[in-house]
């Protein structure tokens, strides 16, 4: 059985001082971790103006995210940092405003809607395969570029019912890429309460990119918003149609600005996370050829040369488990920041009101008490059910409690489909001497890309 352990930044032996920790975290928060971070139940960071608690203990995680979620709303610092793009989107709001938005958005992600979205996802996946066909056999290729493209295309098509091909779509995509490159420099200092360390130049560039994205999204949304107001029926059952039809308890629809906030948020959350995870899945499969071969065999048996359908997504169990295991080792949302609403005790410490409480799937998924061989890539552990972490709030790539990811089922469906089609058709090979370097930014990405060689698989390609 393969026991490939992907490289990640070696934790420091000793805890660094608060300031040094912050300076390391500015580039990648993974660099601020130290050995005990992976063993402790709870840790504490104190900087001038910031009390931050890192919570790993399963009971505490449940308390913060599930049982007392109302007492630990989303950190305002994160909301402020993302406000130029996301405004008052569901990702950052709290309380009554969040409850209303969640109730209005939930139906767009119900199982029935996912079934409607499947052919759209399949079309974008086939477009990805067609792009890959243009590659020279065995040439090196940065798979992150393709995974970002296909996931952005899927979310674009499922929101607007148009492929991400036209000039406007291209501009949205490019402006998002610019915004995402800047976000870590805005978010990390903000989370650490050190907003004065955000360079005004970076803040200005982020605001400009955000304005451009919102302007372009508005051009796409406005005609449909107006048409719906005028009583027209929707031409398609896409996410935008569901949002335009959504009503709150008082019968009110989303206002235009609020709608743009939600669409901008979905575009960002809906492809950045999936692209990150799929890129790491390709890296893991390239380094564990035996598992890759088993995925290929599963796809060949379950699908053969037939186009996949919704029921196949359930029967591709190993393919799904590869994705689950990727989410364990490289959870795209590596940490979730909350703010204590009132003072409270935690493991014998007094957490003051306003303190930041962080739950980190990255740490919890690699916690030394939670998993057998925690750094090893072992998709079969998800079929065995004998891991302490599985039973103890120790696996939470999509979060937990009321703020759990709205798009979790969407993401699982899309990732299973993309992986099955990719591995059915292509063999992924590692490139000698290239070792991806994980960095913790908005999601967990590789600082130097994920370069692979792609070779056509004769038997399935012929089908
Ligand atoms: C592998 C892919 C994904 C991962 C790992 C992921 C992870 C997460 C996590 C951890 C949260 C909770 C954050 C917190 O509690 O602070 C979250 C929230 C959210 N995600 Fe995802 N996500 C993924 C894909 C998606 C997709 C595809 C969509 C939409 C199409 C989506 C939409 C959302 C929304 C709307 C929220 C906010 C929910 C709320 O606060 O009520 N996500 N996601």
From TrEMBL:
Pfam (any one): p450
Please, which domain of life does this record's source organism belong to? Bacteria
The keyword Iron appears for this protein: yes
InterPro entries per the record? Cyt_P450, Cyt_P450_CS, Cyt_P450_E_grp-I, Cyt_P450_sf, Cytochrome_P450_Monoox
* UniProt keywords, alphabetically: Heme, Iron, Metal-binding, Monooxygenase, Oxidoreductase
- Would you identify the family this protein belongs to, as annotated? Belongs to the cytochrome P450 family.
Name listed for the protein in its UniProt record = Cytochrome P450
């Amino acid at each position: 059985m393969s026991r490939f352990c992907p490289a990640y930044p070696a934790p420091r032996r000793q805890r660094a001082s608060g300031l040094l920790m912050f300076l390391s975290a500015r580039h990648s928060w993974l660099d601020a971790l130290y050995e005990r971070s992976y063993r402790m139940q709870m840790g504490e960071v104190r900087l001038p103006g910031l009390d931050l608690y890192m919570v790993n203990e399963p009971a505490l995680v449940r308390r913060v995210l599930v049982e007392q979620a109302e007492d630990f709303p989303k950190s305002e610092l994160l909301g402020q940092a993302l406000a130029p793009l996301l405004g008052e989107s569901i990702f950052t709001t709290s309380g009554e405003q969040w409850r209303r938005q969640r109730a209005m958005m939930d139906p767009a992600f119900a199982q029935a809607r996912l079934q409607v979205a499947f052919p759209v996802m399949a079309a974008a996946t086939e477009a990805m395969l067609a792009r890959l066909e243009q590659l020279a056999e065995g040439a090196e290729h940065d798979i992150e570029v393709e995974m970002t493209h296909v996931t952005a295309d899927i979310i674009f098509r499922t929101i607007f019912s148009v492929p991400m091909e036209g000039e406007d779509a291209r501009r949205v995509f490019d402006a998002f890429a610019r915004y995402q490159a800047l976000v870590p420099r805005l978010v990390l200092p903000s989370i650490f309460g050190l907003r004065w360390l955000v360079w005004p130049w970076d803040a200005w560039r982020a605001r400009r990119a955000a304005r451009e994205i919102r302007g372009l999204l508005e051009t796409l949304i406005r005609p449909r918003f107006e048409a719906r107001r005028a009583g027209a029926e929707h031409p398609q059952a896409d996410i935008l149609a569901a949002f335009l039809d959504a009503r709150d308890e008082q019968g009110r629809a989303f206002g235009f600005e609020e709608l743009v906030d939600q669409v901008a948020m979905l575009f960002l959350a809906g492809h950045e996370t999936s692209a990150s995870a799929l890129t790491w899945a390709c890296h893991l499969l390239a380094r564990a050829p035996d598992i890759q071969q088993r995925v290929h065999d599963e796809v060949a048996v379950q699908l053969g040369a037939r186009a996949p359908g919704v029921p196949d997504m359930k029967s591709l169990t190993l393919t799904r488990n590869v994705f689950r295991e990727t989410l364990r080792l490289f959870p795209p949302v590596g940490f979730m920041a909350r703010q204590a609403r009132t003072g409270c005790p935690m493991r014998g410490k007094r957490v003051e009101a306003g303190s930041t409480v962080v739950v980190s799937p990255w740490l919890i998924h690699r916690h030394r008490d939670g998993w057998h061989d925690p750094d090893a890539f072992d998709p079969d552990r998800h079929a065995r059910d004998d891991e302490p972490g599985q039973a103890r709030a120790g696996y939470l790539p999509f979060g937990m409690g009321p703020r759990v990811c709205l798009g979790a089922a969407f993401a699982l469906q899309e990732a299973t489909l993309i992986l099955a089609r990719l591995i059915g058709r292509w063999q992924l090979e590692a490139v000698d001497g290239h070792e991806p370097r994980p960095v913790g930014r908005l999601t967990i990405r590789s600082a130097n890309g994920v370069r692979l060689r792609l070779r056509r698989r004769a038997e399935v390609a012929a089908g």
